[in-house]
Automatic annotation (TrEMBL):
Occurrences of domain HTH hxlR-type (ranges): 10-112, 174-272
Name under which the protein is recorded: Transcriptional regulator, HxlR family
MF GO annotations: DNA binding
Record-annotated membrane-spanning stretches: none
PROSITE patterns reported for this sequence: HTH_HXLR (PS51118)
One Pfam family of this chain: HxlR
Top-level taxon in the UniProt lineage: Bacteria
Keywords: DNA-binding, Transcription, Transcription regulation
Organism of this sequence: Aeromicrobium choanae
Start and end residues of each stretch annotated as Disordered: 151-173
PANTHER family assigned: TRANSCRIPTIONAL REGULATOR, MARR FAMILY, TRANSCRIPTIONAL REGULATORY PROTEIN
Record InterPro entries: HTH_HxlR, WH-like_DNA-bd_sf, WH_DNA-bd_sf
SUPFAM superfamilies per the UniProt record, alphabetical: Winged helix' DNA-binding domain (SSF46785)
Length: 321
């Protein structure tokens, strides 16, 4: 599939949120897209970069091509060989990937601290990406946004229609972004963090909204508490009914969620209208997630970010993102 416009969804079917979760809520697919953004295109390159089986790699590459995120092109006919090139649809994921880098760097301890820093070439400073409102330019946190279901919204339509098998816990998928993949690299985890940002705190609320098996909900809540993204609190009037509240670390994940939703509604369009309508309370305008440099407050754009490797002398070894 070559670069094209948005995918028009079927009326009454899975909406943009569900389609996004079905694609990005899979750790192998998310990792493949990360490697693709760094220039890998061929099967052998992906295979060497990831602890993935041939069958799983083939399946994920096929899926990503079908969803319009990779363009499969034959470069040799005897024997048959293909390469998988990023499309406009996958290239516009870079703000989300940048937000993932920042969250891991800030919140995951030594593993995050080992990630390379980045410099904004526009101002020359090392920076952190700042989530802002495109309409007014102001910095934004989850509490600043009013969200409501749109014409194609609702929890039932926002759950992916298909699922993928989780890897065995003994397999390490990515040493770079392990906690992001634990939260976002699974469709139920992605849906659960979204529900938490919508204000859900009780087990029964998560179960009713997501429609997932109770054992799966319980396992994900325990995992999120272990990661420090949620914390369990006893209900004031019902001590036997714990509530699950976002921590500072959990709230800091909001840019990843916001940017993925923005991407979803750009590329998957329902004829009934958007799945989620978000308003920035401060300016009253529709909220469109955007990243700016926290040092100069100018918008971040592709080609203006340089990786500064983690080495003693940063002045002699630099690469451009």
């Amino acid at each position: 599939m070559t670069d094209g416009g948005p995918t028009l969804l079927e009326p009454g079917g899975t909406n943009a949120v569900g389609r996004m979760l079905g694609i990005l809520g899979d750790e192998w697919s998310l990792l493949l897209l990360g490697h693709s953004s760094r220039g890998l295109t061929r099967y052998g390159e992906f295979r060497r970069a990831m602890p993935i089986s041939n069958s799983v790699l083939t399946h994920r590459l096929t899926q990503l091509a079908e969803h319009g995120l990779l363009d499969r092109r034959i470069y040799r006919t005897n024997p048959l060989r293909a390469e998988y090139l990023p499309t406009a649809r996958s290239r516009t994921l870079w703000p989300m990937m940048l937000a993932i880098w920042e969250w891991e760097r800030r919140w995951t301890g030594p593993a995050g601290e080992a990630l390379p820093r980045r410099r904004h070439d526009t101002c020359g400073a090392e920076f952190a990406p700042l989530l802002t409102c495109r309409a007014c330019g102001a910095p934004v946190e989850a509490r600043d946004i009013r969200a409501a279901w749109g014409p194609s919204g609702g929890w039932e339509r926002s759950v992916p229609a298909s699922s993928t098998r989780r890897r065995p816990d003994s397999v390490t998928v990515s040493p770079q972004y392990p906690q992001t993949l634990e939260i976002f690299g699974n469709r139920w985890s992605s849906a659960l963090i979204g529900a938490a940002f919508r204000g859900m705190v009780r087990f029964s609320e998560f179960e009713s909204a997501l429609g997932a098996p109770p054992t799966l909900i319980a396992e994900r809540l325990r995992a999120f508490c272990a990661l420090g993204v949620l914390e369990s609190r006893q209900h004031a009037r019902h001590p036997g009914r714990p509530e699950y509240h976002l921590t500072d670390k959990g709230r800091a994940f909001f840019p990843i969620t916001a940017l993925s939703l923005h991407w979803a509604q750009k590329w998957f369009v329902s004829p009934e209208g958007p799945a989620l309508v978000q308003t920035h309370a401060a300016c009253g305008q529709d909220f469109l997630a955007h990243l700016a440099c926290d040092q100069c407050r100018q918008p971040l754009r592709t080609g203006t970010i340089t990786i500064v490797p983690v080495i003693e002398d940063r002045t002699t070894h630099e690469g451009t993102a």
